[in-house]
Amino acid sequence: MSVAERERCIKRFAAPLVPGACAWYLGGFDGAVPFRYAYPMDSFVIAARDGASEARTGTLKLPHGEVPTPVFMPVGTYGAVKALSKDDINSLGFKLILGNTYHLYLRPGVEILRRAGGLHGFCAWQGNFLTDSGGFQVFSLAPFRKLTPEGVAFKSHIDGSSHFLTPESVVDLQAAFNSDIQMQLDVCTGWGASRKEAEKAHRFTADWALRAFGEWKQKRDEGYGGLFFPIVQGNFFEDLRAESADICASLDAPGIAIGGLSVGESFAEYSRLLAFTAARLPRDKPRYVMGIGTPDFILQAVENGIDMFDCVLPTRNARNGSYLTRDGFLAIKNAAFREDFSPVDSECDCKVCKTYSRAYLRHLYKEGEILSSMLASWHNLHFLAAMMDEVRAAIREHRFLQYKKAFLERFFSGKYAEGDPDD
Question: Which one of 46, 263, 272, 317 is separated from 164 by 20 to 30 angstroms, measured CA to CA?
Fold first, then answer.
């Protein structure tokens, strides 16, 4: 986007600053343009900091209720967390789940969701929804996609129909969904991408952030109450990451997401780029690392001052018979559990561990019973919800690093090494 184009965009969406609001100043690739916009400053309140790390705990104030942070968000791609009902999600204590704009746009479609009263009316769940923009799905699922400065053209992976999404239209879709937090359309690159590919993705994502922010501001003026997060990209090149982080920070949006991590890199590389990126982001904004769900990745993010994360892992693993326990992942298919009448995790107080034995859960899994996925999904999400309760308590008591060390030492102790499944 040229300076002239950027100035036209700013002029279109400019507004005077009102009392009790935040202002932002955009520094772009080819110039800087001042811009003033107002939104509530108290959407995120930090209650306590760890002291020995960047970990902090607080409250995210959203249209459908307050959310304690740090928070793990279950993934409900199509408006439902697989194998669980909305009442299950409520009972597990989750107040924020993730939906996906790409999938919801293709089916059931924006008009049905609009007529139903948005995602909340359609799904009958009155907690909060964060919707991903669908950028990752466009680039990973949709065939015949074509990227242009204006947006992305693609064919549906469902029926081959042609579609075109722009940063503005993705904001409009998420506003129609009544998303409590919406993400900008971005360009994703994977581990091992070339410098040229990473530069192009970064440049498109940065310009799209400005355009999306302007469209979001207009939707806010029309009464839409959801928050907007731009996304840091830049692949694994520090200079691109730094520039992307600085641009996102300059928007002064309600929060910021970090994309492009946990895409095949080693844990060491993830940790390095996570720390590098997080250090460049405002400390008073909620920060969201997209797509992480194992305890080691989550706790590393918390240590670096990250407040939000999501992943399909706990429910996907559940459907494949993998249970999260204090001693690591337990593969229920293993023959060792055929006559084991103890609970999955003796220290877990979820309804699964209080009611069913490993032998019975193994039987359900081996027979392909739907109940297997339901019970394992409940347990795994309960495990992460309980872990996050402990994390928040450890931060308040200034002992997060000790908690992290003890938790991970036990989790990776190797107690449940892969055994022999019994046919």
Answer: 263
Partners of residue 288 on adjacent β-strands: 257, 308
Provide, for the chain, the percentages of residues in helix, strand and coil under a 3-state DSSP scheme, each rounded to the nearest 5. Answer: 45, 20, 40
- 156 domain-assigned: yes
215 and 267 housed in the same domain: yes
Cβ atoms of 210 and 257 closer than 8 Å: no
Backbone angles phi, psi at 328, to 5 degrees: 105, -170
| Token pair in block for residue 422 | 């019994």
Q: Which domain holds residue 348?
A: 317-411
Q: Please report the DSSP string for 108-151 in residue order.
A: T-HHHHHHHTHHHHHHT--SEEEEE-SHHHHHHT-SS-EE-SS-
Amino acid at 170: V
The residues of the chain scoring below 70 in pLDDT are 1-41, 142-143, 418-423
Cα distance between residue 293 and residue 331, in whole Å: 17
Task: Find how far residue 382's CA is from the centre of its chain.
Answer: 18
**Dihedral through CA 226, CA 204, CA 297, CA 287, nearest 10?**
-40
Residues 6+ apart with CB under 8 A from 252: 22, 23, 24, 25, 37, 282
Local structure of 369: helix, strand or coil: coil
* The predicted structure's pLDDT at residue 183: 98
165: which strand partners?
A: 152
pLDDT (0 to 100) of residue 42: 84
Given the structure tokens 């309600």, which residue do they identify?
Answer: 254
Please say which residue of 311, 329, 352 terminates a domain.
311
Only one residue has tokens 């450890």, namely 394
Structure tokens at 280: 């460049």
- pTM score, two decimals? 0.90
> Cβ neighbours of residue 379 under 8 Å, at least 6 residues apart?
318, 323, 324, 344, 345, 348, 350, 352, 353
Q: Would you state the pLDDT for residue 1?
A: 42
How many domains would you assign to the chain?
A: 2
Is 97 part of any domain? yes
Catalytic residue set: 132, 310
Tokens 């326990």 belong to which residue?
A: 325
Question: By three-state DSSP, how is residue 162 classified?
Answer: strand
Nearest alpha carbon to residue 215 among 183, 246, 243: 183
